[in-house]
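Escalated from tier 1: alpha-D-galactopyranose holo job.
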Amino acid sequence: MRADGGQQPPLVRVVDAFREAYGREPEGVWAAPGRVNLIGEHTDYNDGLVLPIALEQRALVAAARSSYGRTRAISVQFPSDVTTFYATTVVPGQVTGWGAYLAGVGWALRVAGHAIDDLDLVVDADVPIGAGLSSSHALECAAGLAWMDLAGLPVDRMELALACRQAENDFVGAPTGIMDQTASLYGRDGHAVFVDTRTLAVVHVPLDLAGHGLALLVVDTRAPHRHADGEYAARRQDCEEAAQLLGARTLRDVELTDLDALPPHLRRRAGHVVTENARVRHVVSLLEAGSDPRSIGPVLTASHVSLRDDFEVSVPEVDSAVDALLEAGAYGARITGGGFGGCVIALVEDAAVVASVTAVEATYAGRGFAAPSAFVAVPSAGAGRLDA
Ligand code: GLA
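Tier 2 regenerated the structure:
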């Protein structure tokens, strides 16, 4: 099941759109995947541990150096909304909307001292937009690769991930961590990407679900994102305040036994982060030991309970989907991504995918929620240049 519903292959579509827009061939096409996070939620801005996978669904950027001394970007998804800016001078505040993800990366690379050119760009994506699957980070990573390659710059993937985070934080204005960019840049077929966001060490952890007759089902709840940006920033602030009260640099340096000194709501927030880091280690150790992946199911569900009750980033549509999936026999299910809507993942038997989706659909219909959509996540390769 692909999120694009099996239309024209995205590579052909983006190249055709480039020819139509600029009357010439692109110099190249760069692609970067969206992600789902297997486990390690709201840990990445606390110097913590994350274990995402890169999806096969990608953002694509067709690009060529511009002959007009400015960057022009057209989106296949939003064709009437053309973005222009000067990559050599653009600063935060000058570009908004989806164009900010492109301009932001150009700006961050420039601030890091790289001489980049203005580009003609066409962007396309088969990552569902606005579903919490990091379509925007995928776009940043693909554009960043295009910029570096076309300027003849050697690509250090972690440096690019950091530039993309800076674009997100200081240009787009979203105080997110580095999980999504590392997933997109370091994804590997058949593997999850274990990142220690303090040391920035990346380890690929085998995740052979199909070989065990399993599927990682992603259910897009289509729940409207309720105050997602403000609530995300508020959670981050809670974590910083908790660390400060405990005299720690970040919550990575805190033990469960330290938390008694905190007021109750900060104890619950910090408790989630500390236990979530432990759950990531647990899942990594099970997978690295070659255990049956079914064994990670209860750990995924425990993560959901912690995010629901202690970190309070869930919404009724998400909890209903998790409950319906578990009742339908999933080994584990949890919210994935920043929360307040978005997607749920569930570890299910391959043969139970259809019945699991049906179970969520029935629950949603009964509760008057908008119909969900679903696909099976395949751990895929990270960003790179495609042969046009
Ligand atoms: C969003 C952010 C990530 C991370 C998650 C929560 O996806 O972009 O950096 O903080 O939320 O784990």
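The chain is about 40% helix and 20% strand.
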